[in-house]
Amino acid sequence: MAELRVSVCYAHPGRQFLTELRLPEGALLKDALLRSGLLEEAPEIDLPAAKVGIFGKARQLDTPLRDGDRVEVYRPLIADPKESRRRRAVKKGRPQT
Fold first, then answer.
1. What CATH number was assigned to the domain covering residues 3-91?
2. Residue 92, pLDDT score
């Protein structure tokens, strides 16, 4: 049976998780997260509700993996990016659009 090599990563302020895994062909994104040890390392992750993806693109937990994929778990945004840009523009004296 062929194997896939994938990495699993998660970044949190002050802490980073990155591991490489070998999984059987046909493995799903959820399989990589469960086998990686990430959920034990970061118990704050609620897997059914977590935003996850591959190489920066949001995906579902039942997405089949391909060799070389980087599985990522995304944290919720602290601030709205549009609002942050507006505040920076106002500070610099630029008109709002």
1. 3.10.20.30
2. 79
Kindly report the backbone phi and psi dihedral angles of residue 91, in degrees, each rounded to the nearest multiple of 5, phi listed first.
-60, -35
Average pLDDT over residues 15-26: 95
* pLDDT, tens digit, 9 for 90 and up, residues 65-84: 999 999 999 987 666 667 77
Q: Are 6 and 68 in contact (CB under 8 A)?
A: yes
Diameter over CA atoms, the chain: 62
Q: How far apart are CA 33 and CA 43, in angstroms?
A: 12
Taking CA atoms, 19 is separated from 73, 75, 83, in Å, by 13, 18, 34
Q: How far apart are CA 4 and CA 65, in angstroms?
A: 8
Q: How far apart are CA 47 and CA 24, in angstroms?
A: 21
- Angle CA 64–67–69, to nearest 5: 75
